[in-house]
Design goal:
alpha+beta; 2 helices; rod-shaped; 7-stranded mixed beta sheet
Length: 218
């Protein structure tokens, strides 16, 4: 009888230990699943952040600009975005359009023109300023300048452009004039000479006749 009771006790003890082991295993598995779920949820906001839509407004002022040869010109380009802390990460490009076509001046915030230190970006990107500076302008700098900003998501936003007109330092008689003005003055001068010839021709003929008559009388 005592032997039978001992076997029952040992069997009960073994069953209890087996139950504890199974329970611990299930608890560990549940805990690992919960931890994995928490990690997944924690990472999800970062994915949402990278997919955030960017909104940007690019403004160029003024629409038209005039300068004299040898002067320094600043073409303003301002941009604004709700994601202001990331403005310095934007890529800026400047290009010019004229009768010869399009010419890239600045790309990825750097001047790309070879051996040209006259053109560079003088604004502070962290403040939303991507203004272009042109030193010692010449008549070849005339054209329409465009400011183009590329967002981190690849979207490109371009300003309306600024038309730059260059005037010569000295025109006729030391007067500051543009090329068009000089052409107008020359045309007006030629026209005046033609008018004088037309007006004076009859008088010259009379003078010639008078001289001939005087010579005959002598």
């Amino acid at each position: 009888m005592s032997q039978h009771i001992g076997k029952l006790c040992r069997s009960a003890a073994s069953s209890f230990l087996l139950f504890l082991l199974v329970d611990v295993g299930v608890s560990d598995g549940s805990a690992s699943k919960e931890n994995a779920a928490v990690t997944h949820v924690t990472a999800w906001p970062s994915l949402l952040t990278t997919r955030e839509t960017w909104h940007l407004l690019v403004t160029q002022t003024p629409a038209k600009e005039k300068a004299k040869e040898g002067e320094t010109v600043v073409l303003n380009c301002r941009f604004h975005s709700p994601q202001r802390p990331f403005l310095a990460d934007l890529m800026v490009k400047w290009y010019k359009e004229d009768e010869k076509g399009q010419m890239d001046l600045l790309e990825n915030n750097m001047t790309i023109l070879p051996n040209n230190s006259r053109v560079f970006m003088g604004g502070d990107l962290s403040q939303g300023d991507a203004s272009l500076v042109i030193l010692n302008v010449t008549t070849s700098d005339h054209g329409i300048y465009f400011c183009e900003v590329t967002l981190p998501d690849g979207k490109v936003v371009t300003g309306d452009g600024t038309k730059l007109r260059i005037r010569r330092a000295l025109g006729l008689f030391g007067i500051e004039e543009s090329i068009g003005t000089i052409i107008g003055v020359v045309a007006a001068g030629i026209g005046g000479v033609v008018v004088l010839i037309i007006v004076l021709t009859p008088q010259l003929r009379r003078c010639v006749l008078c001289m001939r008559q005087g010579s005959r009388q002598v």
